[in-house]
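Quick one: DNA-binding response regulator from Dictyobacter kobayashii, structure tokens please.
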Amino acid sequence: MIRIILADDHPIVREGLHTLLETQPDFQVIAECANGEEVLQTTARLQPDMLLLDLEMPVKDGVETMRQLSQLAQRPRVIVFTAFDDDERIIHALQAGADGYLLKEAPRNEIFKSIRVTMSGGSMLQPIVASKLLRHVGKQRMTPVRPLDAIPQVEDLTERELEVLRLLAQGMPNKEIAAQLIISERTAKFHVSSIMSKLGATNRTEAVALAAQRGLINLGE
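--- reply ---
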């Protein structure tokens, strides 16, 4: 059972999402919050597994709430659930510790899948969010003094790392990658770390974005 807290300052959004999630036998909505301060207090008290968090809330917004959540001894997984899809909000949310980013227009099955994948250690981004992240990363790394041949090429990744990368792009956590490739979880973790290092990425999400930028994977698949 995945114990979930919903955080949104619009009651009708919370009620609709609550009703939707309760249709799944492995989801349990244990609380609803209307602002960031309430999220922090309720999370510390109930220790949920998952938090679906809006970005625009009174008292404390979603980004500040996530930053303070990182100080808890037991931090829940966090999926940002918002109507905003501009690059700046996406980047700030991921930097603050979001494990996933969903737009409120997402189909119900995509919401269900994101919760389950994120809870198992993966990271889910909708295609439109991933493409915006990719564009941002591309802009950040486009500098006039950096020659093209200074960027690591495809050959830098081994065949096994490319296999791991494709599974990583599907949002799989290390445990599932290991099972898929019939290797140990420790080996899968090693490959993921190596991929991030070779691509110059600071986290799994950025690694996927950079890999797509270089043509190693297709985020639209």
